[in-house]
Amino acid sequence: MEKLIKIIDKSIDSYMDIDGVYQAKIFEAMRYSLFTGGKRLRPIFMIKTYEIFSKDINNVLPFATAIEMIHTYSLIHDDLPSMDNDQFRRGKPTNHMVYGEAMSILAGDGLLNLAFEIMSKSIEYDNEDNGEYKRKIRAIQEISKNSGVQGMIGGQVVDLLGNHENMNRDKLKFMYKAKTAGLFQASVVAGAILGGAKEEEIEILRNFSLDLGLLYQIQDDLMDAEEDRKINKLTFLTYYGVEHTELKVLELTKKVFDSLDQLKNRNIDSLKEVTKLLVKREK
Amino acid sequence: MEKLIKIIDKSIDSYMDIDGVYQAKIFEAMRYSLFTGGKRLRPIFMIKTYEIFSKDINNVLPFATAIEMIHTYSLIHDDLPSMDNDQFRRGKPTNHMVYGEAMSILAGDGLLNLAFEIMSKSIEYDNEDNGEYKRKIRAIQEISKNSGVQGMIGGQVVDLLGNHENMNRDKLKFMYKAKTAGLFQASVVAGAILGGAKEEEIEILRNFSLDLGLLYQIQDDLMDAEEDRKINKLTFLTYYGVEHTELKVLELTKKVFDSLDQLKNRNIDSLKEVTKLLVKREK
């Protein structure tokens, strides 16, 4: 796992190494947030899924790098004063505390744009067979949908406008599915597509990733319970109460591993292992 | 021209028509800025360039729509309080004045993401010949580079950090090339690529679009001279003075039409016509 994180970090770093250019400051700002202790969960899940079906990691690495950039941009923008107004993340000052609001907005924009730049540039249309770049295009389509207004951003909007009065079950479900689970889904499904999984395997992994994303967010709610109560934040926990929430965690945990077990003809040991680590995580 | 603008507007509108979803507010906010009197210059130049080489406008329309979304997101974010703090644009309240800062940030993010979603989705890899989707991939690569940290966003960073003390000729040149000319270049070059232009034609049109973008921005400076002086804004005009700037306008105007005349074996009447309109524009 440490070896894999090093490979991911090196890949991210390779796009940030632009010294001497006039706009060097934005690279500094982007790099700052890319390297403040992120766990690289999304790229790890993408690569581990990919490796079930294919071996050459170079085909998935640009996409794994891109998904971490998309995740990072969303955190930078989320932390802004007009959004969550967070001054610290992972124990360090947030991007806008260090670089100012304007640069933070641009750094977020820059990372989102760079993600698509990296993914599209990874397609070398003259040196690849048909199947190879079809898979890459499909992966970009999958990621863009899940990170956009129908996915992560859509979930953030509902989160932004939501309160205890205007929320309902379906809306809350959409918010959770879109917001956190969106990028988990994008990561796992893109990994499966790029690896060359069969259609039915892709759908199994889609269900797996959605449940995993939900589980991850609900665990977060349980860990942040006290703080969320203070700021009157609407979460799955505050909406349904602790008993129902803990039952949901058990249910999702079961579903996650049941999904994996449906891929019985494949070697899923490694993906199962990282899933176990995620499910049992401590704060 | 009016007919073409209607086609572009209809295409933009087709992506905004999502009633009844939980995140409807962001579609409202995106639509607000997409339809506040933009001149659709970038899509028009993309389509007019495309039409020199190909006739079926449906292949270029998603890209023309995407470039207008990228342009619009950049205006929404530019206008934010921590950036230019503009309260009005084209005589109407800016996005954040209507929808608040948080929603404006998300609306900008949403439009940037949607642009790449639309472009990548336009590739129907099962129904197109090889050349068709190669061209589309290359167009995405061209647009993403010019809208990103090496292009428009990079130029915005230099603009944000620049002042009369720390500026120099090369830096100013980079800023102008990247900021406004970046998206003009992306529009024209993507149009040429999608249309199937030859490599040497693409390069002629690249030079044309860069000069045109510079010209457009410098004309803006001349028109906004009084206001820029008030806020002590650094522009080509305030850096070089009015005489040098007016000479530059003449020089660029000549270069723009000289470039077009190099495409002598093609019918460039229509592109020349919109170029003339742009060059002679009044505020």
UniProtKB/TrEMBL annotation, chains A, B:
Essential cofactor(s): Mg(2+)
Gene3D superfamilies: Farnesyl Diphosphate Synthase
Keyword Magnesium on entry: yes
GO BP term, pick one: terpenoid biosynthetic process
UniProt keyword terms in alphabetical order: Isoprene biosynthesis, Magnesium, Metal-binding, Transferase
InterPro entries: Isoprenoid_synthase_dom_sf, Polyprenyl_synt, Polyprenyl_synt_CS, Prenyl_diphosphate_synthase
GO annotations of cellular component type: cytoplasm
Enzyme Commission code(s) on record: 2.5.1.10
Recorded catalytic activity of this chain's protein: isopentenyl diphosphate + (2E)-geranyl diphosphate = (2E,6E)-farnesyl diphosphate + diphosphate
Principal EC category: transferase
Domain of life: Bacteria
GO molecular function, one term: (2E,6E)-farnesyl diphosphate synthase activity
Family according to the record: Belongs to the FPP/GGPP synthase family.
Protein name: Farnesyl diphosphate synthase
Organism of provenance: Wansuia hejianensis
Origin organism lineage: Bacteria, Bacillati, Bacillota, Clostridia, Lachnospirales
